[in-house]
Structures are given as C-alpha cells and as structure tokens.
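Agenda item 2: magnesium ion complex prediction
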Amino acid sequence: MVGDIHVKGLGLSFPQQNGIHEVLRDVDFVIHSKEFLVLFGPGQCGKTVLMEAIAGLLPPTAGSVEDAQGSPLRTQELCMVFQKYALFPWKTCRQNIELPMKFKGVPKQARRKRAADLIHLVGLDGFEHSYPRQLSGGMKQRVAIAAAYAKECPLLLFDEPFGALDAQTRLQMEQELVRIWQQEQKTVVLITNSIDEALLLGDRILVLAGSPSSILEEYDLREFPRPRSLSDRPLLNLRQSILDRGFFENEGGGDLRCE
Ligand SMILES: Nc1ncnc2c1ncn2[C@@H]1O[C@H](COP(=O)(O)OP(=O)(O)OP(=O)(O)O)[C@@H](O)[C@H]1O
Ligand SMILES: [Mg+2]
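Presented output:
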C-alpha cells in the first residue's frame, strides 16, 4: 500500500534554442492514498511531463515528489501506462503481459494463468501470440493496460490510456479500471483530456493548465454516487460549470464526448 504522495512546488523546464521552455511551475497537490485522481488539461499543457516526473522518469527542475515518509517513490510501487503504448516489439502479447510477473519471480504456471485471465479481461482472446506490430493501436493499448495490471502495484499511473480505443471498448475499460480500483484498493492517477471521462471516473479532478501550467482548479466528486451517468443532473451541471471556465479555450475543445 502507498500512503499519500506529495507533489511539492514542482517545476519543469526544458532548454530550447533561445532560452528555456518552462512547462510546469509551482505544481502543488497531494495524491491521497486509495483515491481515484484525474489530471485533466488541454493538449501540450504538460500532463505527460508531470506524470513522468511523478513516476521518477524526469527529474524536476524545481520541487519534489515524495511519499508520506518524505522519500522519492519506489519504482516497484507504481505501474505506468504510457500514452504511446510502451510494449516490447519482439515479444508477443502474452509475453509482454507476463514480463512484469517474470521480473517479480512469479512461477511460470501462475504467470500463464494470470496472463490468460488478463488477456480475457482486456478482450484479446486469440491474440496471445500476436506481436505488437500485428495489433491495432487500441489493441496495443489494451496489452499495455493488461501488463500494468499484471505488475500488481498499489499505484497506477495511467496517461490517456483509453484514447486509442473505440467508444464501446473505452467504456468497458473505464468500468474495469473503476472495478479494479475499488476491489483492490489501489491509488489511481489518470490523465485525460476528456471532460466526460474525468467526470465519470474521478474522486477528484485537478485541472492543469496555463503557460507555464499549474493546478488551476480542483473539483471534489466524492459525493457523486457510482456508477455515474452523464445524464445525472448534478454531474451535467458540474460539467457545464467546468466548460464555462474555458480551460480549453485556446485549444479547440479537447475530447468532448457527448456534447
Ligand atoms: N523531452 C522534452 N524536451 C523538450 N520539450 C519537451 C520534452 N517533453 C515534453 N516537452 C514539451 O513539454 C510540453 C508539454 O508536453 P506534454 O507531453 O507533457 O503535454 P501533454 O499535456 O501530455 O499533451 P497531450 O495532451 O498532447 O498528450 C510540450 O510543449 C512539449 O513539447
Ligand atoms: Mg500527454
């Protein structure tokens, strides 16, 4: 189990030809243990950069990401699903899913059984022996999601994991993530640029935007009962008030499903 995670005064800049590109400034928030936190923001606002900093893959220019004891997060505590399906191209679907279990020393038979269950869970029965190049974008993303579940860690960091999926599969995968979060008591941080996904899934929504970006708003959805529907009046009202804030104004609307 991971306790609360503190993102403190995080800043991230990249050197550019004529100076530096400051992407994040003074990003401050807490990821509460076992919550479903959504990071929502327009394109190029620094969502992926922030997630990579949380995961320890990008050293921040300022500030820190610390666990409850004030230490950096340990890689074995977190699984990340990258925006661009990070699969091993020379390994089959099943081998990609089994790999995290292999690293953990799970015996072969147990690995195989769990991989079969996960392949079924993400709807890829029959594709066990396919290589990533033989799969569509959405299928690859489902393998990456299954591989993240296979690692069985308390913190799931999902960077727009459902963007490449068709609407029906996306809904199933979203529901499955909520089920896993609830049943297995995980902490989930989900990045999305879909306001509907944010509203349907999150305990809290943090809006990352600006230039440089920081957390501009926080919405607490813990009082909204689950499963949620976008036809629930209070949710629709909240959706409208978020849209009225115009976080996507310079960006063409994001992915506004169900407009
Ligand atoms: N390694 C890097 N070197 C230089 N600039 C970078 C690097 N990684 C990201 N950036 C820049 O940081 C900014 C934020 O990128 P990031 O990928 O975090 O955006 P995002 O919010 O995830 O966008 P999207 O919604 O399109 O996924 C972009 O302008 C990008 O060009
Ligand atoms: Mg991104």
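Discussion summary: The chain has seven helices and nine strands.
Owner for follow-up: CH.
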